[in-house]
Structures are given as C-alpha cells and as structure tokens.
Fold:
Amino acid sequence: MNPAALTLHDAGEKLRKHELSSQELTLAAFQRISETDDKIHAYITLCRDAALEQAKQADERLKRDGSTLPLLGIPIAVKDNFLTRGLRTTCASKILGDFIPPYDATVIKRIRDAGAVITGKTNLDEFAMGSSAENSALFPTRNPWDGERVPGGSSGGSAAAVASDQCIAALGTDTGGSIRQPSAFCGVVGLKPTYGRVSRYGIIAFASSMDQVGPLTKDVRDCALMLEAIAGHDPADSTSADRSVPRYSEALTGDVKGLRLGVPKEYFVTGIALEVEQAVREAIRLLEKNGAAVEEISLPHTEYAVAVYYIVATAEASSNLARYDGMRFGHRAGGKDLLETYMLSREEGFGAEVKRRIMLGTYALSAGYYDAYYLKAQRVRALIKQDFDAAFQRCDAIITPTAPTTAFKIGEKIEDPLQMYLSDIYTISINLAGVPALSLPCGFDANGLPIGMQVIGKHFDESTILRLAYAYEQATEWHRGKPRMED
Ligand code: GLN
Structure:
C-alpha cells in the first residue's frame, strides 16, 4: 500500500513504531503529487526541499524521544491564505503576487512545533471568496472523482489534495462553508470549529466575524487529532477563546446512545438533489437504529441566511481588503500620482468576484444605506443565532446535508453568482451563528460522486459532533472510497 494513502492516525502509529519513516512518507506524498497534480492542480506552491528537511528532523525526533505528538512527521497541506514565514503566500490573488510573509500564522507555528511536515500551499478561490475554486487567479482545481467537475471551494485545493492522497491531512478556512462544502464534494471529512476555538492570527482576513480555521482529513479520528493540535487560546487574536482544549480523540466512543438529534425541516426543501436527500435521510435512520433519538426541528430564519451572509461578509471584506493598495506589499501598478497608483493597483490586482464583493460591501456600509442593509442584516443574524440556541435546548446535535447537490461541472455556475451563492445554503447559517459543524461522507450519487452530511453542534461542543460522526463512520464504509484517477 502506498503510505500516502494512510490516515494520520495509522501513519502516526507506523512512525512511532519505526515501521515507516517520515522521509519515506513525505517522499510518497510527493510521488503522488507528481503522478496526479498535473490533472488535479491542487497546489499553488510546493516545498519539497523544505518538507524533506522537516521530515529528516522529525525522524531524528522520533528516534530520540519516541514522541507521542500525533502530527510529528506527518505531511500536511496548507491553504494558501495562511501566512507562512519565508514561503510564498498568494491567497490565489494577483494583488499579493509573490508575497513572502515575514512571520507564521499561529496555527502554522503550532503545527510546525508539533513536528508536521508542510508539503505546500493549496489553491483556493481568490481571498476565499467562492464555492468552486474557479475564482483562483491562477488556475481552477479539479475534483479527483471527476476531472470535469469542481472540487468545491474555497478550500478546494486542500480537499482535492486530501482526497487524492497528495498529503495526509490539510488545513483550510471556513467563512461560509469553505471547509465543509469542498469536503463534501471530494469525499473527505472537514470541520469548522466554533468561532474563537482556533486562532485567526496570520490568516488573510475575509470576513473577520465568521472566518475560522479547521482541518480536512481522511477520517473523523484524524479530524479530532488535528483539532487538538491547532485549537486553543492565542493572545495575538483577541477573538480567540480562553478555554481549555478537550482531548477530542477521547470523545470517540463509537456509540450514539442517548444523543438527541434534530433534523431541521427547512433544510429539505426545493433545490436539494433527490439522491442527496435520500443519502442523508438514510444516514439519520442508521443513527436512530443505533440508539440516537431523532426529532424534526425548525430553524425558522434559515431562508434569510444567504441574504444576510452576503451583506455581512461583503461589508467586512470591503473593509479588510482596503489594505491592498499596492504600497506595502504585493502588486503595484504604475500611476501618475498616488491616487491613480492605488486605483490601478486594485483594478489590475483583484479578480471579478473580489471586486463584486468590495462594491457590494462598500454600498451596504455607505451613509444612507447602512441602516437598511448592514444594520438590518446584523439584526437578522441575531435571529438566526437564536434559532440555533432554541434548537439546542432540545437536541445535542443537528443533522443536515452539507450541500444541496454533489460536485457541479466546471463552468456550470461561474457566470451566475446567485446560483453559486446558493450552493452554500446549508453551511452559512452556521458561520453566522458561530457554532461548530463537520461534514463527512454519507454516500455516492449515480455518477459516483461523494455526498456529504453535516453535523452541527453547540458552541464549543466539538466533542459531541466528533463522537457522533465517528460512530456513524464506524458503522459505514463511505469514507474508505478512493477516487480512481488512473484514467
Ligand atoms: N462560498 C462562500 C463565499 O463565497 C463561503 C466562502 C468561505 O467560506 N470562505 O463566500
């Protein structure tokens, strides 16, 4: 078996038993990259030499103290919106060009300290704005299950890299679904933690009140191990929570007895593909059979979520992206004076979707419109959050599909922003409410494309959703499916 196809926990065990070295594992991942990435295009930047050096150091550390650090020696891919010291960080935008950050994001520092090996930086929609990875200014990433289809987005490169065994696990960010939707489309596990659970310091900001960092992995246990490594308070991020980090892997008991599950009726309405609905309902039946108590619930403000998200997210983006003016870093156009240089740098540097969002957000925040749009959106956001608070009085977790369809074709939605925005209809309320949610495989459609199920939890209760997801995974085989990429 190709070592790159191993899960993180299996690879870690082999490393600690000295049955496999980190250098072998890292070489296997790069071998896989060289075999598949000319089709998939998951990576923007590869760092083979640095990775092999990190692997060598990990091997020495493994020999020295037989360390029990779960990430030690493990090849991990990182979405290209995490600042990585000395390693090009583009955010898939021309405006950052060949920007080389002078420091590491806190999460990068944590995984480096834990001995992880960074394989490279993965593709995304420019500034994480999109649902298909087609908004990358560099190239689109292709879905490993079908090269004509998108891998989802914005963390499409990370999801495709995990699904095609080009790394053992990956990091992504999720502002409105960007970890969960690509995980669903590529048949991997992806978790958006509670807002504040993981530090955002050194992550290129899109919508700061919703951005969260999380893992994309081959199974649920890997997801728990990754979260343990990256979660925790960071004084450099004032929104990071000062709460202790549970041993998430200890929550994986394999049983769901006594768990109360809510199934929101608003998530099974027009627009959902029949096969997606059937697969998720089948999964719910299995959980019920295994001892969970299932009840239908209501999240009545769901229908406003897309509208609210696209006001709040664009407003925050317009302000966050004001810093890209060609002066301090990135692309600078030649202009005859300062103002023209600003304008031309932004005109040349940003892609169409990013410009659309800056304009929408600037409009929503402008004098005279602020009350009608931004303020109103904030009020509806509070109602959406209250829906979840009320639901969690009655249940321990909520189950929904992750996305209304399986992976769509490249080019299918790119000309129609509204259609693209609707592919996040099941994921964005979660970011507005700040609660954690995970996507895991729960079936395949008639085209052989993976279907994802979303498990939503209470604030800071990642343990319960990991427990539930793990129990489901133990009872099924979906996560074992691998894309056939030979042909
Ligand atoms: N697809 C959503 C958007 O375009 C979410 C993106 C994200 O989570 N970064 O905004």
